[in-house]
Description:
- The chain is α/β, with parallel strands linked by helices.
- 63% of the residues lie in helices and 6% in strands.
- The protein has four domains: 2-163, 3-Layer(aba) Sandwich (Rossmann fold), CATH 3.40.50; 176-264, Helix Hairpins; 289-438 and 461-486 and 504-521, no CATH class; 523-665, no CATH class.
- The chain contains 31 helices and nine strands.
- The strands form two sheets. A seven-stranded mixed sheet has the order 2-3-4-1-5-6-8, sandwiched between helices. Strands 7-9 form a two-stranded antiparallel ribbon.
Amino acid sequence: xxxxxxxxxxxxxxxxxxxxTGSNQHVGNFPGVTVEQKIGTVKKTKDGSDVKIVxxxxxxxxxxxxxxxxxxxxxxxxxxxxxxxxIVDASNIERNLYLSLQLASLGLPMVIALNMMDExxxxxxxxxxxxxxxxxxxxxVPISASKGEGIEELKDVFIRVVENKERPKNVDYCxxxxxxxxxxxxxxxxxxxxxxxxxxxFAATKLVEGDESMAKRLKLSQNEIETIEHTLIELEKxxxxxxxxxxxxxxxxxxxxxxxxxVKKMSxxxxxxxxxxxxxxxxxxxxxxxxxxxxxxxIVFYLSFDLIGGNLTDLxxxxxxxxxxxxxxxxxxxxxxxxxxxxxxxxxxxGIGSILxxxxxxxxxxxxxSIMEDSGYMARVAYIMDKLLRKIGLSGRSFVxxxxxxxxxVPAVLSSRTLSSERDRKMTIMLLPFMSCTAKLPIYGFxxxxxxxxxxxxxxxxxxxxxxxxxxxxxxILKNTVYKGKSVPFVMELPNYRIPGxxxxxxxxxxxxxxxxxxxxxxxxxxxxxxxxxxxxxIRFNIVTNSEAGMLAQIAKFIAPVFKPLGFGNWRAAxxxxxxxxxxxxxxxxxxVLTTGEVAMGDLFTTASAYSFLVFTxxxxxxxxxxxxxxxxxxxxxxxxxxxxxxxxxxWVIAFLVYRIILLFI
Length: 666
């Protein structure tokens, strides 16, 4: 038994999903797209079978405008779930029922979970769920997902409805000219709808709304399409408005009548609303909103990358180092072959360990971001930033991933999944490498302390500013070339502030930590072994004692001339850059190893080439973990690789220009 969980954004869908499935869930992607898919398992039914719940993206309608709406529709049409659980926010029932009417017209077994009833009742409101169910033709179960109230009753109802194949009653709320148009099309497309496995009423309604994808799905002939166009022209003449508006008016009239008969509205000035209005006067203030946000994020980054996460990372790193050294000592005492010891300790475990040591930082960062998201604050941030970002072709939603990019590119890329537009999502991902992640800070500090000791802070600040300026330039280029067109209209609900659910927050952290660990033991494990092998063996596969004789150095010598126009065409700098592909921090450690003895940093770089090197490390392809995540999000290995190559080419051009400009002034 497979059920689809559908509802508006901010209606408590994730909380209900977690309440139903607990930890029995896994995260993947919907087939063919990068929109996140959550599947959970409900405890066994009476006959011993499992019930799987698929959490569809939060949507407001089944019109194919955003990627989420397309995904939800395609899942229902193509995967054909056994039924639908439609979660409705009882405190915003009129708006939520608009989606409910569309879902009911699909003809699948369905139950409405009327959420946040505790909030409605505490503010003097009530809902006659039995009468509402009669009007809608669908069972309605009152629940409070955050408190776990009504969950067991909901389980019993949706299992009964699906097992008995109880389809929504045929509630005909069509009136006048809309009624005539829909019913005439229903008769015309009856055979097509049956062949496509789609409710004829739903299909006819979508055709009246001008849904071209529905016409393609039904495989209509040109004559039939022309007949539909003629029907719509007649409808619009009679109605005096366009067909979409006529359909929307018809639905809202029915909803208004249903609400009037069944709902006692709660007080407009609820406690939550009053509190939210008071908080918003400060947090979304015209002048102070942005400074307050930057202050909050400054505190979050300080706690995540320094006070809490940073200290935990140092502790974790120390424990990993001690563990590796203990293993090395034990294997040496046991008489294990030195090559095997080096493979495990210097290759696989060192590479994995360097990434796993960041796990505490990632968890702490996501903890704070999750709290900010679930509390309703991030919706306000997107609203504040929308006007600024729209000038470069993005929407306010893109700001959060870009901000996270200053911490780590990997979670920033993953957080881009929340963007409703595929165009905005891919543009945002392509801009993320311009944000200076914390892994680049050791490089900035190391090079600045040697070549710019009196202006180290200014040099580091200039790199951050340069990254932002170049990101804006790239966004404008993408906006007018690869990603032409307008971004999706930015419509965002500002929900009341709420205290985040502990269970939901920690389930999210568990999923993020699991995803991070899986990546460490797959992609990074393989990359670490490859880097170790290239460093440790020459082209005849003999183990080397000097890294200069290794294959990595030979490859670097072959690549080094590419960097000569940038001022650092030596194999040691090239080796450091290649190692930086595994982890940006490795650039510093490799340079330190390769500049021992007679070779000094001053022999590899001049002041001008040192800054050019810093610019290149700022802009070139991110670490292997970020690269793998970007490739996965683009859903195409070739495109993901091309993005990385384009970033490196862009880095080369900018570093070249910077180097030549500096030479003009010294």
